[in-house]
Amino acid sequence: MRVNPHQLSQNLKKGLSPIFIITGDEPLIVQECCDLVRSTAKKHGFTERELIHAEHNFDWSTLVASAGNMSLFAEKKLVELRLPGGKPGDKGSKALQEFASLASEDLLLLLVLPKLDKSQLNSKWVKVLEQSGVLVQVWPVTIQEMPRWINQRLTSAGLSAEPEAVQILAERVEGNLLAASQEIEKLKLSSPGQEITREMMEHSVTSSARYSVFNLIDTVLSGDSVKAVKTLDGLRIEGIEPPIVLWAIAREIRTLLDIMEKLDQGQPLARLVRLQKRQPLIQGALHRLNKRQLESLLIRARAIDVSIKGGSGQQSPWTGLLELTLNFCGQRTI
Length: 334
Known about the structure:
Layout (H helix, E strand, L loop, with lengths): L1 E2 L1 H9 L5 E6 L2 H17 L4 E6 L7 H8 L8 E6 L6 H14 L4 E7 L4 H4 L2 H9 L1 E5 L7 H11 L3 E2 L1 H11 L3 H14 L4 E2 L1 H9 L6 H10 L2 H13 L4 H23 L4 H4 L6 H10 L2 H18 L8 H12 L6
Parallel strand pairs: 1-6, 2-5, 2-6, 3-4, 4-5, 7-8
């Protein structure tokens, strides 16, 4: 069964399926969907949770073995498998299908992975898992949808806002749901139960240092490594969460790959990049980095995402972000 994030809560009220697949590139919504499945599972007696990161050269026998490794003190177990690459390969496909046959009222699989394309959604392993469970597709919130999304979050936080105030926040976060959510939480603390006016929102977002993350992106695109490192360090000192910085960098890498592909098809840059002030930045980055380098940067970004979420990597998220920033600027790191 396939549902969207808004339908997940209602689906869970009908009963707990043995398999949940959460797929998408919108980290905030993916995280909230996972939280909802975990909390519901806990209410149903799933007191044991095993987190597995299926990275490069992952031993897929570990997944099947986890089905039998039940704690002496837990009767029900949730296995959360994170697949940052999105493609399990032949061995992984077989292991996932075998695990699907073992999933039951006492064993639940929560599979979290990036957006699946059409061919992946039609693959055998996805169809087998979907037959026994629920597939939640998380779609990006478009620029046009952003004001409505912000209004929904404001209402959930017990707030309301003037249309102009909503538009100001939508323009400043530029699609970053994590940043928008944190700004709303700040407003909830500073102005509980109030209607947020245009003036209040302008003051809030202007005084919020987290939006310099977008200045970081422009600096990285320009290739100014010295300024980029200083900006990144400033974000760290000011307490900006690593996922927000990573989201912005990873999104820009994907955007460059998409623009590169369309330029090869003969589409003009002016049509692909509407803001004139960003066109020379994009041109400079594409001149500096080729497709293979951009794909390598994206792999590095996924590794940082694993370290942020408590994976097996020994490198701190900020060290990873520093290396990613330097590489994006065209600098080599050891």
